[in-house]
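Hi support team,

I submitted a single chain yesterday and got back a structure, but I'm not sure I'm reading the token output correctly. Could someone confirm the output below corresponds to the sequence I sent? I've pasted both exactly as they appear in my results page.

Thanks,
R.
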Amino acid sequence: MTGLVHTAHDRGITTLTLDSPGNRNALSATLVTGLADALTRCATDRDTRAVVLTHTGNTFCAGADLRDPPDPEALVGLLRQIVELPKPVVARVRGHVRAGGLGLLGACDLAAASTDATFAFTEVRIGVAPAVISLPLLPRTDPRALARYYLTGERFDAAEAVRTGLLTAADDDVDAVLAPVLDGLRRASPQGLAETKRLLTATVLETFDRDAAGLTALSARLFSSPQAREGMTAFLERRDPAWVV
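Hi R., thanks for writing in. Yes, this is the structure output for that exact sequence:
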């Protein structure tokens, strides 16, 4: 357990809970480090058959913490760690997901949400782009849907997230829809899970190998730009940025 990531274990399933409700579980440097450390422990824990990633509060993850942002390379490392973990990672969402939080969902092998959850790629509205999080998202989700939501920053619901491939399932009772999934994972052999996951993530990891350096550089350049400074300042001051017409 760290201050921002809590760990619990039940019958082969290790649950990692993001617990930073004060900033809506935003991806601060501290949270990224804490989650990466917890995943490292899960990777070598023989009692962990699969990992559930969930949260406290009404937001799964609000994206990058603008006051304490993680290094782009650290975020790339965390997303790749989820993809490469030799155990399935299942996202359990009972709230809203924004920007970089959608990268966490994209990196997970399976993802379920309550039907009242909402989603948005808000990067364009603060002057940046969903660069690093595209590494797991582009190979796994509908490209036409991503084009719309990347370019507009529109909010969309859980049903649309299922249709686009961002979610595996959505239900009023997210635990009910996850119950048979977790039961199936408990019945699977560790070797079978690891090798099957390797098959499923091969294309995603090819994208990391090919594009991670370029997208990391793009993210760093955009976040240091004048438009990003204006966008982030406007967000923190709860006003429209200067370019809104």
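A quick pointer for reading it: The longest helix spans residues 190-223. Let us know if anything else looks off.

Best,
Support desk
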